[in-house]
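User: Hi! Is it possible to get a structure for several chains at once, not just one? Here's what I have:
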Amino acid sequence: MIEVLLLLLSVPIGLGAGLYFAALVPEDGLRHQAGVVVAGLSEASPALAGLAVLGVGLQGSQVGALACGWALLLVPRLVRSVERALAEVDPGLQARAEALGATPWEALRTLVLPAAAPRLTGLAVRDVARTLGELAPLLVISAAGLALLQTHAWVAGAAVAWVVAANVLATLLEAPR
Amino acid sequence: MSQRQLTPRLVVRALSLRVADAPVLQGVHLEVPARGVLAVIGPAGSGKTALLRLLNRTLARGPTVQVEGQILLDGDDLYSERQRLRRVRQRVGHVFPDPVPFPGTIADNVAYGLALDRVADRTQRDLKIERALKTVGLWTRDRAELMRPADDLSRGDLQLLCIARTLALDPVVLLLENVTRSLDPVATRRVERCIRAVAEHRGVLMLTHDLAQAARLSDEVVYLEDGRVIEQGATAQVFTHPRLQQTEDFLAGRTGEGLA
Amino acid sequence: MRLRSPDARYEAALDGLADQLGQALVLAESMVQEALASVFERDTERGRRVLDDDARMDALEVEIDRRVLAVLALHRPVATDLRWVVTTSRAMTDLERIGDLAGAIARVGLELSPHVGLQPDGVMRELGQEVTEGLTELREGWHRDDVTVLGRVREAKDRVGELTEQARSSRLRDLAAYPDQAHRILALAELAAALARIAEHLENLAEQTVYRVEGRDLRHSR
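Assistant: Yes, the chains can be modeled jointly so their relative placement is included. Here is the combined structure:
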């Protein structure tokens, strides 16, 4: 049940989180750190998601595995897309709306979001499509991996070590966006 | 056109502003007349923009922002707790230097402020929109014209639309911040004509770097430098015979680096 | 034909200036006519009114100067408008001098009238006529932007020059013949001199008309 919910709610959760980070949270240290993490995650090699799929699959839940992989891949990407769509809106819109008496939230709701909506739709659709595309091979590899693990457990340890190292390195090497 | 018979509706008294402990405005006194145009001129860094931000409470009091003195609109202290921000912004309208249309039609743009207030009566709303557009010279009986997307308009017309957007709320005083800065000479003259039309029924405080424009358009002028009022008075008087040499040097373009 | 500017205050300022100068032109014309009438018809009342009019002419000069300064400082006119404003200012100076000279003529009338003696002769009357006609021509030409008025005014001025010479000779003869009437003869000489100077101012005004309309500066061009 939870798995199905996770599948369905990934999109609104992603969009909501994106909105929260991009528009409403004040620009401070914690926000910046969170931004780095999200940036790293959104670029995460599907192998990281594959790990999650593997892990949950080992617990026996196929749908759960799928849902985890899907959520882990999609949510950070959606957050980035929301940030980007909002950033592309003319910053003057907010100021001018407030000059007419709107509260910051009203301005966001009535002007900035509608203005960002077309771009955001485009980006979100692209994110979903990309994630869908990456999920399929992920499942195949995980199924093979599961089978392998049943026979050679040490493969799991090596795979985990390799993937974690690769991702940490990648995140460290990339300058924060 | 003497405005002195009517009581000024926006009065600034002994206004001082400090931001991050640096003085930005010091002891500013000025009055925006009930009708007509008051131009505020001065070099960059003179505090003109900060002054404007205080007049519609865009700049809020805070740990780094210290405000002393009074800004009174029809006798009400704009910075008192009792004044609702939305009401302040409706009564003190502000137009930005660069025209930015809201998404939607021309009519949508002008109606934005009214929609915020949930002005329910449709006729009322349409009437206010019509009046605002007429004042700026964009009105037409052709409804289809008003339903055109706002970003179809030329830059000059866009700025007129931005003014109409603010006028729809029937402000007491209008703050114009360098509104012709990005316009060609013909569009500038059209906006200037609109400004004079607006000033027939309300007070206008105009920030401009164009001294010829200040001379052309304003009835009174305030010269600010380093956060202080250096000179103020009737435009005709200040431009033909200013009291201070400093004012004359500024008007004649002699202020700046390399002064003897 | 010049388009009217959408700046209503600017146009109103120019209209105001034009109106004031129009008043000055009319005033100058009437002051000279009345002053001459007070001499030739021995009507001192008219002469006294001319002296009162001088105050009004002075007030017009002050007002026009104030308005010219305001228009230049506030509206920064260019080209035609600029020449128009500048020539209006110069014209006012000439008109004010004409007013002063009309006053001098009126004083001649006051001096001559109570006593019996030598009267202004036909030459003087012709001199007076050339000047008053010239002034009327000038006023009408100014409003019509008529550049040909310069030619006619210069002809009138030449004629005034000839007549002044004749008048001078007459006065010298009179002095020899009637030495006891010296003060009257001198008064008549002042009259001729005043008229000659009015003619010079008429030439200035005509030159300003040409400069205003065509941008050609024809001062000192003869």
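The helical segments of chain C are 8-40, 44-75, 79-112, 122-144, 149-177, 182-214. The mean pLDDT of chain C is 93.

User: Great, thank you!
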